[in-house]
Amino acid sequence: MQTLLFNSAVFLIFFALLLLVYWRLAAHYRAQNVLLLLGSWFFYGWWDERFLLLIGLSTLVDFLAGLGASGARPSDAIKKKALGWFILLGVIVTLVAPAHNWMFAPISMGLAGLVYFIAQRIDYLSGPIRRKSWLIFSLVTNLGLLATFKYFGFFTDSFADAMAVFGLQINAPLLHIILPVGISFYTFQTLSYTIDIYRKQMQPTERFVDFAAYVAFFPQLVAGPIERAKKLLPQFQTPRQWRVDQFQSGALLFVWGLYKKLVIADNLAPIVDMAFSDVAYTEPTLMVVGIVAFAFQIYGDFSGYSDMARGLARMLGFELMLNFNLPYFSRTPSEFWRRWHISLSTWLKDYLYIPLGGNQKGRLKTYRNLMLTMVLGGLWHGAAWTFIAWGAFQGGILTLYRLAHIDRLIFSQNLRGMRRRLIHIFAWGLMSYLTLIGWTFFRADTIGHAFHAIALFNSAILSGEIFIQLPQLESAASLVLYISPLLLVQLVQYYRQELELLWKGFTAPSIAIRFVTLNLLFFVVCALVFLSAEAGQAFIYFDF
After folding, report:
1. pLDDT of residue 1 exceeding 50
2. Are 220 and 182 in contact (CB under 8 A)?
3. What does 366-409 look like in DSSP terms, one character per residue?
4. For position 521, what pLDDT does the model report?
5. Measured between alpha carbons, how far is 521 from 529 in angstroms, rounded to an integer?
6. How far is CA 132 from CA 64, 69, 121, 350, in A?
7. Best CA proximity match to 433, nearest among 328, 279, 340
8. Quick check: pTM over 0.85?
């Protein structure tokens, strides 16, 4: 089976049926939560039902850990109800698994028994030790699952390669397993719940269904945004009312995200693949086009997914956090990370950078904390040295800009008029160049390929070849064709400081604005019908 892609007919049928039943239950929000939980498990299990046990285990552990980290002792009734839901999930997997279906029910029972045993042992402790033990239990479980399924093979292979340099042959053990889709996202989401409770920043819920629906909420389950429990969980604990305006704005946001994915990202994918397929034989001009195309491919792909997730959630009466805020208008690395993948950058800041000391323990430690945070952020994206190099590059430019006080200079209130505009344009150009260099590490197959691609890119720019003669005219024309409408819309969004142009313009009091918005909507729909890529591409961040 494959993931229920938002752009697939099967998903649209699934969502339409769920939506119909969901709003029929509007007077019973707890029944809606049960429906959302079962629907989300179905959505996740469509990809590979076996990994439902992983998300179920993470949910079970953090539900109990959240209660324990608050200082309370979860009652046996609460524990048994949560364990019962986990065992039910194991039975469901047993019934639908195509092979070895007898395994999953006993596995779920065994895991439930182990969790119950550990919970009972922790509850014998007292005071702060018990609270910290619950937190440690959450960290060990979640990070252990993430390390095993995502990083075990990478680190064992890297260790074996390092030993081979010294002439030592190591037969490293291998785990031939598939990376569970979305594991990086829901792991960070459940961890933040327990950590926030331990920090006394929120209170835990005693209703397992509410918490499990929050963890598995299908619009943002497999590629974010990484939601904080203190913002999203309360929305599961209160009734949701049907509102026509909310539904319409959600539908338009979904359509806009679908446009970014199918028309922009998927059409640029072949250009990017052609440029990076064999870097050693790629022409410099094609490499320039390929690198720029990848910048818009990953933006259209990931921000498109986030828009679709927010749109789907809004149609269900929920509001997810903004994950992208026009990042390619950034003038400095720190501004870029306030605009790109906001849910991850704020997570790393709150749960890694600040606990390491942030900028409160001197300059050297501040630079160390920046580098460590960004390197680990790069590793979060995938188990490969290219992602580590990308994270190190991001940490490096953040450090250099801080060392030179560039942010303070650019955003100084003393800058006025033409001087301010010129400095901002230059800063934007430099940041755009650095962003493209960073994306080259992200996309390349190896670090060596990345450096070669960067050399080709720089040679084409410095020689002026890209401007004087362009042998890759067709690829460049396609790039301009697909990104120009997006750039025009984003220029308006940037200068009006309004991201939801479709919805706000659609309901604007001005007839002229409504006319322009309707034409934009007509263009988007026509583009989806006539310009969508023939071969659908999986979302890039499904691999992370």
Report:
1. no
2. no
3. HHHHHHHHHHHHHHHH-SSHHHHHHHHHHHHHHHHHHHTTHHHH
4. 81
5. 12
6. 13, 7, 13, 19
7. 328
8. yes
455 part of a folded domain:
no
| 420 and 499 co-located in one domain | no
From 341, 381, 405, 449, active-site residue? 381
Burial class (CB in 10 A: 0-12, 13-18, 19+), 239: exposed
The label of the residue with tokens 């920090």 reads: 199
Is the pLDDT at 80 greater than 80? The verdict is: yes
User: Can you tell me the distance from the alpha carbon of 372 to that of 353, in angstroms, rounded to the nearest whole number?
Assistant: 8
CA distance 205 to 194: 11
In-domain check, residue 460 = no
Residue partners of 462: CB distance under 8 A and separation at least 6: none
> Tokens standing for 137?
């239990």
Active-site residue 381, yes or no? yes
**C-alpha span between 519 and 276 (Å, rounded):** 37
Q: CA 200 to CA 58: how far, in whole Å?
A: 21
- Asked if residue 301 and residue 421 are part of one domain, the reply reads no
Check residue 151 and report its DSSP letter.
I
Which pair of tokens denotes residue 391? 């994270």
Q: Length of the chain in residues, anyone?
A: 544
47, 4 Cβ separation under 8 angstroms: yes
Beta carbons of 182 and 40 less than 8 angstroms apart:
no
| CB contact at 8 A, 342 and 324 | yes
- Name the token pair of 374: 């960004």
415: its two tokens: 């800058």
Q: Are 257 and 324 in contact (CB under 8 A)?
A: no
Confidence of residue 207 (pLDDT cuts 50, 70, 90): very high
Q: Which amino acid is at 189?
A: Q
Identify which of 377, 333, 325 has the alpha carbon closest to the alpha carbon of residue 352. 377
Strands (E), 210-339: none
Number of CB atoms found within 10 A of residue 376's CB: 15
Residue 169 or 345, more confident: 345
pLDDT at 162: 56
Total domain count for the chain? 3
- Residue matched to tokens 């903004």: 322
| Cβ atoms 11, 540 nearer than 8 A | no
Q: Using CA atoms, how far apart are residues 32 and 21, in angstroms rounded to an integer?
A: 9
Domain holding 542, by residue range, is 244-324+472-544
